[in-house]
Design a protein that fits this description.
The chain is mainly alpha-helical. The protein is 71% helix and 6% strand. Among the domains are: 76 residues, no CATH class; 82 residues, Helix Hairpins, CATH 1.10.287. The chain has a 4-stranded antiparallel β-sheet. InterPro entries: GYF_2. Keywords: Coiled coil, Membrane, Transmembrane, Transmembrane helix.
Length: 239
């Protein structure tokens, strides 16, 4: 037994057999379809349903007369979707899809723009932080260099003072040693002179002793002179 689908203008209903179609009160223009049909047809175009239309006439609508639709108009009505022709429906659907795609694309672009701005802001903050760190490091280096310079100046000043004090000390020693040397030379002359009740051995011993003292003092004076010369050179470099 064949079963038929009906279309109410918005959606399909069915399948229904002939007995069930009697209760549906279908009209001549009701779109119907069953297995084996290439496309939808009106109920009047299906031979099997004509008898059903004769036994179930359409209800009478008083005071309103509708002109009968031509077969072309009935075919066009049967091909509408949601009240729109197939062409208009697909055009509207295409426009709708295009609007959705545009909205999604704009949203993605806005998200990318927001993410890029956030990354740029983060990069800028990182750069500022890096610059501050570099500035602090440079300031710390400058403070260390200044401290080292002050320390070097202090050490140079102390060294200069120490050298100057040592030079004064050496000058004092030289002056004293020159006086001692003069006295030793006098002692040597006295030892070389003839003295009563002094043996020649004693005379030679006194001369040797005086000469040794003179040699020792002379060597000491020479060492002090070399030291003071070196100190003057060192003091000149410090200046």
């Amino acid at each position: 037994m064949k079963t038929y689908y009906l279309h109410n203008g918005n959606e399909n209903e069915g399948p229904f057999d002939l007995e069930e179609l009697k209760s549906k009160k279908i009209s001549r223009t009701t779109p119907v379809w069953c297995a084996g049909m290439d496309d939808w047809k009106t109920a009047w175009e299906v031979e099997e349903l004509k008898s059903l239309l004769q036994t179930v006439p359409p209800p009478i609508k008083p005071f309103i007369t509708f002109p009968s639709n031509t077969e072309e108009e009935e075919k066009q009505m049967s091909q509408k979707i949601w009240g729109l022709s197939i062409t208009n429906f697909f055009m509207a659907a295409g426009v709708f899809v295009l609007v959705i795609v545009i909205l999604i694309t704009n949203n993605l672009q806005e998200n990318r723009k927001t993410n890029l701005e956030q990354k740029n802001n983060q990069t800028e903050r990182n750069n500022q932080q890096y610059k501050l760190q570099q500035k602090e490091i440079q300031e710390q280096k400058n403070r260390i260099a200044e401290q080292e310079s002050l320390e070097l100046e202090r050490a140079a000043k102390e060294e200069k003072e120490a050298i100057s004090n040592r030079i004064l000390e050496i000058k004092s020693l030289l002056s004293s040693n020159y006086s001692k040397l003069k006295e030793l030379k006098t002692e040597l002359n006295d030892a070389a002179d003839f003295q009563f009740l002094r043996t020649s051995e004693k005379r030679i011993e006194d001369i040797d002793s005086a000469q040794n003292n003179i040699d020792d003092l002379t060597n000491e004076i020479a060492e002090l002179k070399r030291e003071i010369d070196l100190l003057y050179l060192k003091l000149e470099k410090i200046r």
